[in-house]
Amino acid sequence: ETAGDGAGKHAPEYRVTAAVDMPVASGENLFTRQGFLPLVKHRAADVLMPDLMRSGGPSEFLQIAALAETHSMPVSSHAFQEISSHLMAACPNASFARCSASRARRCVKP
After folding, report:
1. What residues pair up with 26 in beta bridges, in sequence order?
2. d(CA 55, CA 36)
3. C-alpha to C-alpha distance for 47 and 26, rounded to whole angstroms
4. 3-class DSSP state for residue 2?
5. Helix (H, G, I), strand (E, B) or coil at 77
6. Among 16, 66, 24, 77, residue whose Cα is nearest residue 7
7. What is the CA radius of gyration of the chain?
8. How far apart are CA 35 and CA 22, in angstroms?
9. pLDDT by residue for the chain (110 residues), tens digit each?
10. Residue 13, Ramachandran bin (φ over 0: left; ψ between -120 and 50: alpha; else beta)
């Protein structure tokens, strides 16, 4: 049995993750840590990337990060960088933070 056996709806993600030599981040469309369990169990991603609002807010984001850490997986952020950057700073397994250039330009005064 391989890690992808029984991956169900995450089988395509598992195949991509297994086929490429670069880290694959996934999870921006999942809800709550229970939604992330199959990604972790089947190694259908190298990096968990919860969306702050979809995943259930700051507390659930941190719980997902803890789940990832328990399985030696890094965590990233998906959006809402104004808040996500603070949450990422609290995660020992933080890898990278997704940053929207258009949003960053609005934050910087010329």
Report:
1. 48
2. 9
3. 7
4. coil
5. strand
6. 16
7. 14
8. 23
9. 444 455 566 666 767 777 888 888 888 888 899 999 988 988 888 999 999 899 999 999 999 999 999 999 999 988 777 788 889 999 999 987 776 666 555 555 55
10. alpha
Instruction: Give 47's strand partners.
Output: 25
Residue with tokens 């941190």, as numbered in its chain: 62
Q: How many residues can be counted in the chain?
A: 110
Token duo for residue 99: 């940053």
What is the SS3 assignment for 25? strand
Distance, in Å, from the CA atom of 110 to the CA atom of 92, rounded to the nearest integer, reads: 34
Nearest to 28 by CA among 86, 100, 90: 100
Helix (H, G, I), strand (E, B) or coil at 27: coil
- Look up tokens 């190298």; give the residue: 46
Distance (Å, whole) CA 13 – CA 19: 10
Quick one: tokens of 16? 């991509």
Please tell me whether the overall predicted TM-score, pTM, comes out greater than 0.70 for this model.
yes
| Strand residue runs (E) in 4-109 | 25-26, 47-48, 75-77, 94-97
